[in-house]
Amino acid sequence: MTAREALAAAQRRLAAAGIDTAEWEARQLVAHALGTTPARLAADPDGEAAAEALEPLLRRREAREPLAYVLGEWGFRRLTLRTDRRALVPRPETEVVVERCLALLAGLERPRVLDVGTGTGAIALAIADEHPGARVTGVDTSPDALALARENAELTGLEVEIREGGVEAAAEGWELVVSNPPYVAAEELASLEPEVRDWEPQEALVDTGVHERLARTARTRFLVLEVGDGQAADLARALVKVGFAETRITRDLAGKERVVEAQGE
Fold first, then answer.
1. What's the CATH architecture for 86-263?
2. pLDDT band at 1 (very low <50, low <70, confident <90, very high)
3. Which of 56, 80, 51 is nearest to 68 (CA)?
4. Over residues 219-248, mean pLDDT
5. What are the residues whose beta carbons fall under 8 Å from the beta carbon of 138, sequence distance 6 or more?
């Protein structure tokens, strides 16, 4: 089977499985199976495809396992991170969270930064990568997520402290506390795409009031939180009620209100 034939077959199978981005994903999977990049695959479409390596990848994706888990890695800002079922897939909207953190940290030489619920370590590692002076700590209550975050710290070579912890860590005193907490309502879980509903860790998805607990607990100069659709305005008001000031809401690339930030002590 040539790469061209593998691409066509993979696209047909992914489309039949209900995947809207079948053409793009087929290129990712075939390139991964061949050990090359989608760009080079397009430039040399007649190379022999590694059919044996491609078949298990296709089967996993047909079962609606997230592409990031199937590939085992995913891009986040300037980094490529290891990804699997131990933590949520890093998403483009969370890159906006990092963007706002970097803007707030500009001019601070060695700020202490805490990422609560670090998951893959994406936020913590991206901040460490793009603000080399920052002293970044990532905490999580999931041993599996912590193991994955440590693997990513080693993979990227970035100096980030990864340790067990939750909301209480935000009380230690920081220049910036950031979090992408769970924000999906329990009753909405069944309506999510199967990639999210059936594969990603539910404890990292379903809202348990972490935003509000962070607002009450955090002792920080800046607080930056990712939120779900329709949640930004209410959270901004809640932050003001507990003593934060200068709130700001930032939209993601899809135009949705995604990031709430505020100034603290």
1. 3-Layer(aba) Sandwich (3.40)
2. low
3. 80
4. 95
5. 114, 115, 118, 121, 123, 124, 125, 149, 160, 161, 162, 163
Q: Which residue has the tokens 């539910």?
A: 202
Amino acid at 214: L
Q: pLDDT tens across 179-203, in order? A: 999 999 888 889 999 999 999 999 9
CB 152 within 8 A of CB 138: no
Give the mean model confidence (pLDDT) for residues 156-166: 97
List own/partner pairs for 201-206 with CB under 8 A and 24 or more apart.
Answer: 201/85, 201/86, 201/87, 201/88, 201/142, 201/144, 201/145, 203/142, 204/87, 204/88, 204/117, 204/119, 204/142, 204/145, 205/88, 206/182
| The residue type at 211 | H
Q: What is the DSSP letter of 264?
A: -
